[in-house]
Every structure is written in structure tokens, then in C-alpha cells.
């Protein structure tokens, strides 16, 4: 069953969105970012504000729970999922448009968004372990001491949720959202006004405010993110788990950069490029989930023989996911194709 997890992902991932239709806001069309043609004719600062407004409008409403009550872990996992997506998109935008952001704002925003993302990470890992990895292993190995494992994982999950809930209920989280709204000139009603954005640099200290300057920057960013994938993506079998995690980070950066800079990629190249990155990211994510599970099993109150069985099965999953990710990454366009697929302005 665990093997089926990786096989199913490759086929389904390109068609799947990061937010399910049920979770999408009712006014999704009203808060959609500008169309690609319009974006290519916008200045970088104006475009940055418009793109930042989108994830900030989707920032989930969090109950004003006192931090003293956060240990109950009362936050819906879907809220954590939506917030993780919003923080990832904002971090990508801040990274892509860094030449147009004041350095001190850039450092502060990235640090705070990294803090929030890391605070939610263990809760996500524990949820995947409990709801995906363990059920699959249980089907293949029913004779393992699952009651002991379930009790141990329930404690891990409870502690991780409490940690995430504490961060989400904190004044620091509320201050971060207020800081982001102030940085990009976005009112509580979601309306964006570039003139009130505090994080934007003076035009004279940026690569330029004309659309041509943004187009040049977009091309350079797309090239840099593409080149960073090599040579690791061509020699996955030689990488250890730490190096594979680093490659996953590079794949995510390439994907989110391409997503933010979609207007400068022709559809015939951009769509398969982003689809390949998405599929590879998901497989490397499954690989990472298996590594997380292996680490968790090291502290499980089970016999050494049972631990070896489970860790060995996860080793197989890691190898299979690595092989499939390598196959998918071989479908990346060559440098010449990517270059020809870039639009001028």
C-alpha cells in the first residue's frame, strides 16, 4: 500500500490544487490576482502589492484564543494547512521581489514568516504520520505492537498541535499579520494601496520601475532557480536524505518562483515546467515523510525486531520515491527550451 502512495501521486498531482474547492473562499474570483497580460505591463512594486494581497486575503480567521488556552490544540488542521500555504506564497514573493523591498523589511518579514512556518511544521508532520504513513504500514504489518505505537504517536501529535496552537494564538502571530498588511499597503477589507505600502524601496534604489526592468529580473530569477536544480536532480540516487531535503527546497523555490512569474513563461513551456516541479516536490515530500517516520520509530516503545521491520519498509519507500522523483525531474525542459519559452514583456 505504501508503494501505491507514490504511484498515485504522480498521476494525480498535476491536476490537484493546494486548496480544495471546499476550502476555497466564496468570493474566489473577486480576490483573484491580475491576469497574466495585465501583470506583464505593471511595475514591479504594483505587481508585488497585488500578488501579496491574494494570500493575505486568504489568511484564515483565527479565534482570539488566550495563549494560556492554546495547549488544548483547538485549531482545525485545515486552518493550519491554509496558513502554511499563505506563508509559503508570501515567502516566495518576498524572495522573488527582494530588489524592490527595503532590506530591513525583507529581513524582518522573512524571519517572522519562517518562524510561523516552523511552528506549524511538526503538527503537519505528526498528522501525516498518524493519518497516512502508519495506516499504510499497519495494513502491511498487522502483527506489530500497534497499540503501543498509537499511544506514542497520539502523544507526539498532541504536543505538536499544542505547540502550533500556541503560536497561532500568540500576539506574535497577530503582530505578523498586521506587519504584512502594513508592509504591502493592504487594508483590513483586503483593498491594496501601493502608496501606503511601507516595505517598498524608493524607485531610485531598485532595478527600475518600468515593466521592462521587471521582465529582465523575471528572466534572471527563472534561470537562476532552474540552474540551481542541477546537478542534484540528475544524480538523485547518489544523494543522502539530507541532500534530498535540500533538493526539495530548491524544487519548491523553483516552483513558487515560476508560479509568481507565470506571465513571463509561455503556456506551452510554463505549464509542463510547473507541473513537473509540483510532482517532484510531492514525491520528495513523501520521501521526507518516510524519513520523519523513521526518526519517530527510533523512540517507539516496541521491540528492536519490529523497529527494524518498519524502518526497513520505509527504506524501500525512500528508494522508490527517489527513483520516481528522478524520473519526473528528467522531464524538465532543457535550458534552451526554457529560454525560448520566456516572454519579453
TrEMBL record:
InterPro entries: CHAD_dom, CHAD_dom_sf
CHAD domain: residues covered: 41-334
Stored SMART domains: CHAD
Classification via Gene3D superfamilies: CHAD domain
Protein name (Swiss-Prot/TrEMBL): CHAD domain-containing protein
Pfam family of the protein (one): CHAD
Signal sequence, renumbered to the chain: none
Amino acid at each position: 500500500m505504501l508503494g501505491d502512495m507514490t504511484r498515485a501521486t504522480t498521476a494525480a498531482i498535476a491536476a490537484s490544487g493546494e486548496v480544495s474547492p471546499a476550502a476555497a473562499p466564496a468570493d474566489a474570483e473577486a480576490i483573484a490576482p491580475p491576469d497574466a497580460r495585465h501583470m506583464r505591463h505593471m511595475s514591479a512594486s504594483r505587481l508585488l502589492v497585488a500578488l501579496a494581497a491574494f494570500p493575505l486575503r486568504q489568511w484564515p480567521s483565527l479565534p482570539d484564543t488566550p495563549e494560556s488556552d492554546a495547549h488544548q490544540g483547538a485549531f482545525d488542521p485545515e486552518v493550519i494547512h491554509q496558513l502554511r500555504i499563505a506563508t509559503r506564497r508570501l515567502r516566495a514573493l518576498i524572495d522573488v521581489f527582494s530588489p524592490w523591498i527595503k532590506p530591513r523589511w525583507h529581513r524582518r518579514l522573512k524571519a517572522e514568516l519562517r518562524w510561523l512556518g516552523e511552528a506549524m511544521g511538526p503538527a503537519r508532520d505528526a498528522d501525516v504520520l498518524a493519518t497516512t504513513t502508519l495506516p499504510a504500514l499497519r495494513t502491511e504489518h498487522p502483527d506489530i505492537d500497534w497499540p503501543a505505537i498509537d499511544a506514542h504517536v497520539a502523544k507526539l501529535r498532541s504536543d505538536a498541535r499544542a505547540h502550533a496552537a500556541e503560536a497561532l494564538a500568540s500576539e506574535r502571530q497577530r503582530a505578523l499579520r498586521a506587519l504584512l498588511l502594513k508592509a504591502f499597503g493592504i487594508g483590513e477589507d483586503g483593498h491594496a494601496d501601493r502608496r501606503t505600502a511601507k516595505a517598498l524601496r524608493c524607485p531610485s534604489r531598485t532595478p527600475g520601475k518600468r515593466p521592462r526592468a521587471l521582465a529582465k529580473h523575471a528572466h534572471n530569477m527563472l534561470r537562476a532557480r532552474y540552474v540551481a536544480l542541477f546537478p542534484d536532480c540528475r544524480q538523485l540516487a547518489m544523494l543522502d536524505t539530507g541532500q534530498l531535503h535540500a533538493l526539495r527546497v530548491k524544487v519548491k523555490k523553483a516552483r513558487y518562483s515560476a508560479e509568481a512569474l507565470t506571465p513571463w513563461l509561455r503556456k506551452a513551456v510554463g505549464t509542463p515546467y510547473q507541473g513537473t516541479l509540483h510532482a517532484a516536490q510531492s514525491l520528495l515530500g513523501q520521501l521526507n515523510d518516510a524519513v520523519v517516520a523513521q526518526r519517530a520509530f527510533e523512540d517507539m516503545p516496541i521491540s528492536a525486531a519490529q523497529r527494524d521491520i518498519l524502518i526497513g519498509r520505509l527504506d524501500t519507500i525512500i528508494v522508490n520515491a527517489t527513483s520516481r522523483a528522478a524520473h519526473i525531474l528528467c522531464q524538465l525542459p532543457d535550458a534552451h527550451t526554457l529560454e525560448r519559452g520566456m516572454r519579453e514583456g
